[in-house]
Amino acid sequence: MLFNSINFAIFLPIVFFLYWFATNKSLKIQNILLLISSYFFYACWDWRFLFLLIFSTFLDYFTGIKMSESKTKTAKKFWFWLSISINLGFLGLFKYYNFFVESFAHAISNFGLHVNPWTLNVILPIGISFYTFHGLSYVIDIYKGRIKAEKNIVDYSVFVSFFPLLVAGPIERATHLLPQIQKKRIFDYEKAVDGLKQILWGLFKKIVIADQCAQHVNTIFNNSAEYSGSTLLLGAVFFSFQIYGDFSGYSDIAIGVARLFGIDLLKNFAFPYFSRDIAEFWRRWHISLSTWFRDYLYIPLGGSKGGMWIKVRNTFIIFLVSGFWHGANWTFIVWGFLNALYIMPSIIFNTNRNNLDIVAQGKYLPTVKEIFQIALTFSLTVFAWIFFRANNITHALSYIAEIFSSSLFSFPRYDGDDSKKQLFILLFVFMLIEWLGREEQFALAKLGVKWTSPLRYALYYIIIVAIFVFSGEKQQFIYFQF
């Protein structure tokens, strides 16, 4: 069930009505409703994988209780590693098995040995990377003594499978979400209105920006050998906006929907394309995943302690693992490696926390220096996105080679030139609104609050009309494949 589908437009009001008007007298029944709704939402993709989600939930719920009840450190460690092994085992089987088998077969073929790898013809369960990380953080926090095991199976199940975040995040923590699930929720009109505005902006990002960019990106990347370097560069820029609009759009919708139910989810994006260096970019892009790797991988490995070598090593590890988390393809690993290289100067010279504030805070325009910094950071990011989007390493390298050929200085042309002009206007308006709202939780949060009511509602109606005008064939969110 896509957020940008008629089915979801019917599903959401029904659940909202039942939640606030039929079950609002009992927190327990409200949570049961959320759980049933979440399982129905997930089953709409493929009901068979619902059993995997339920098994993963019960595994972590059971092992969490067993860890809390363990009398010895050995017993606690046994239940901890049982949960970790099974969770990562399922993730590895469904997501990485074929990658490892095929990579091994290719590697030994270089020594003259040829084998026919036995691969699995399986569908990747949607959202498995996200709900697995929910469970892993919960189990790790119990093992480290940060939280106690949850005894209420319904509350814990809602934490893992709450439908707005189930298939593409944000990746939540039990310390943040579980207390909200266990506390009586009272309808807040202002929060609901704010949630609706965030949903509206998320739909605009997805349908008007990401999906329109996707048409050009697919044409250019799928036929890259036919186009000039300038056109390929344009395709890479379009993909940068596509993936941002697509993923941050999903996050905005998820956060907005959760707010309709009185629940606050973790912020996942903070206007990353206005970053002045790569370190700032990664504090603003997919925040819930970046902080997850920081807390559960980077810091346990030693973090920034132990000298420069340890700091550099740990940085490369988390970026390579982050790349691999995105998918079983060497392109993602190279993408992670590139970002690790990008951030190295700030790690080595200890400047990675130079830009903690919002760019041009309280001003309409950035300085010339900030413009240069934003442009450079965006350019490096666009280059790395080429590997993220390419089919394989060979495709990425040939794509890049053509960009840096003499054809880079030709005028970019292809069959979609007419709609391309329209897209440039849309991107300009989009980034202008993002810039004006960069100091808020999302772009539309405070935009127009000081305008007259007719003018403010005109803005919302224009956005709604644009969503309907550009809503053609429904396209799946990019991060559903991860």
Explain this structure.
The chain has about 475 residues and is mostly helical. It has two domains: about 180 residues, no CATH class; about 210 residues, no CATH class. Helix content is about 65%, strand content about 0%. It has 17 helices and no strands. Helix 1 runs antiparallel to helix 2, helix 9 crosses helix 14 and helix 9 crosses helix 15. The longest helix has about 35 residues. The radius of gyration is 23 Å and the shape is globular. The chain starts with 5 loop residues before the first helix and ends in a 12-residue tail after the last helix. The relative contact order is 0.10.
Strand and helix map with partners:
Layout (H helix, E strand, L loop, with lengths): L5 H17 L4 H17 L6 H20 L3 H37 L18 H16 L9 H9 L12 H9 L6 H34 L6 H32 L17 H7 L2 H12 L9 H19 L3 H19 L19 H22 L3 H11 L13 H20 L16 H18 L12
Helix pairs in contact: 1-2, 2-6, 3-4, 3-5, 3-6, 4-5, 6-7, 8-9, 8-16, 8-17, 9-14, 9-15, 11-12, 12-13, 13-14, 14-15
